[in-house]
Amino acid sequence: MASPHSPAASARPGGAGLLAGRTVSRIGYGAMQLARLRADRDAGVAILRRAVDLGVDHIDTANFYGDGFVNRLIREAVRPADGVTVVSKVGATANPGGPRPLRLAQRPEELRAEVEANLAGLGVEQLAVVNLRRADAGPGLRPEGDQVVDLDDQLAVMTTLRDEGKIGAIGLSSVSLEVLRRALPVGPVCVQNAYSLVARDDDEVLELCLAEGIAWVPYFPLGGAVPGLPKVTDEPAVIAAAEVAGCTPAQIGLAWILRHAPHTLLIPGTADAGHLQANVDAGAVELDDKTLASLDAISSSGDSGPDRA
Question: Residue ranges of the domains in the chain?
Fold first, then answer.
């Protein structure tokens, strides 16, 4: 949806980062929650337009968000001239009427089908970045039966799709350190894993990404999104830091992640314009050395919950 040479917004929230050779805002936008606005399409378009107006030029989506609804919203709201890098995801598919709104779709033919569905929904000839959503780490479903698929078989179809020009670059999601190491030869450009100030189990994955020049794109950066994930905003040190900085505890949590590692790109999601503004404003929150030390000292107590894909 965007050319790497497209004009950038005048100010990038959180500063500038790199994703697949493109310069993007370090605070992007995760579009998953837009599925809640199915009954108010205009509100969904307005949220996306507001994000662009605020300088956000990195949007994360998937065809299985709202069974294609979110992708169609992005197609309607985001224009090529906006210079937005839209990143999609495969490895699951919508499951209308099922016990959960989606199910895993890990087989190579399913990965190809989801890439085609993303292309059609977004109305583009190439997807800038596609994340292979595995099920090795973090909250969410675990594969069973024919959904237990070897990484090499998945990477083979992903690289073929890249060779065909349907994918510009390959990313990974919900992967272990071992899986990331195995995937390095295909040149992954980003990794999306659950990670927050209070759930830092994947520090080794983060460090390997930094060493390899891979963008680190944590999801659930404030925790608490699923049962078992601790909430950043419940931490006394976070609350105290927010009082000192004159901002919200959520903004402290986002600001800490940006400060924690220079290759981090955030994609906080919301369907509320006020929350969108607050997330963007977190990019300007300053953390002094004393505050940063108090936050760094918080122990990680994350426990993966069951319901994210």
Answer: 16-223+262-272
Q: How far apart are the first and last CA of the chain?
A: 24
Extract the tokens encoding 66: 């709202």
CATH superfamily of 16-223+262-272: NADP-dependent oxidoreductase domain (3.20.20.100)
Look up 29 and say whether it is catalytic.
no
Catalytic residue among 29, 65, 195, 219: 65
**pLDDT for 54-99, tens place per residue?**
999 999 999 999 999 999 999 999 999 999 999 999 999 999 888 8
The H-assigned helical ranges of 40-150 are: 41-53, 69-77, 108-122
Report which of 271, 306, 204, 307 is spatially closest to residue 30, judged by C-alpha positions: 271
Residue 300's pLDDT is 54
Sequence letter at residue 297: A
4-8, 96-100, 165-169, 291-295: least confident range: 4-8
